[in-house]
Amino acid sequence: MTAATIRRSSLDRIIAQAEREFPFECCGFVIGDATSEEVRPIANIQNQKHAEDPMSFSRDARTAFLMDPKAHLAVMKEIDQRRLELKVVYHSHPDHDAYFSATDRAQACSFDSSEPDYPGTLYIVVSVRGARFVRAAAFAWDDRLRDFAESALQIA
In what helix (H) or strand (E) does residue 83 lie, and over which residues does it extend? Predict the structure, then answer.
C-alpha cells in the first residue's frame, strides 16, 4: 500500500465541511503545488437534480454527489491560471464507511472507464456518522491493477 499525504489543516477543513453538510454528501478539491495546499469546497447539487428529474437522478445527496459544474470549472481554470495541480478530489459518505464505491470509480473515470480523469490525483472519502467524523480513507490509481487502491493516509 502506497502512502498519501495531506496537511492537517486541509483534512480538518474537509472534516468540518462533511460534518456541517451531514446528512448529505459533501465534495470538493484540494489544489496546490509542492509547497502549498488549498481546500476548495464545491456545492453538491445532487438534491436539486433529483428534485428536477428523479428518473435520471434517482439518488439524492444522502447517497450521491454531483459537483456544481460552474464551480468545478472555476477551480479547473484557477489551477491552469495559477499553474497549480489538482491534488485531491474528496467527498463524504454520510452514515457509511469510507470506501471507494463502484459509483465513485465510475465518476473518477467518466471519460474512459480504463483510465482516471485526473491521473496522479488522490481521492479521499470521509465517513461521517451521526454528523461526526469517523474515518478518512485515501485512494489512488494503481496502473498495475488498472483500478483504484487504498493508500495509507499520512497527515503532515
Answer: none
Q: Which strand (E) or helix (H) includes residue 156? A: none
Alpha carbons 4 and 140: distance in angstroms, whole number: 8
Sheet holding 132-142, edge to edge: 3-6, 147-155, 132-142, 122-129, 85-94, 27-32, 37-42
Query: pLDDT, tens digit, for every residue of 60-69?
Result: 999 999 999 9
At CA 31, angle to CA 29 and CA 34, rounded to 5?
145
pLDDT of 1 over the 80 cut: no
Which CATH number is 3-155's, of 3.10.129.10, 3.40.50.300, 3.30.70.1560, 3.40.140.10? 3.40.140.10
pTM to 2 decimal places: 0.96
CA angle 101, 122, 144 (to 5 degrees): 75
Q: Are 124 and 153 in contact (CB under 8 A)?
A: yes
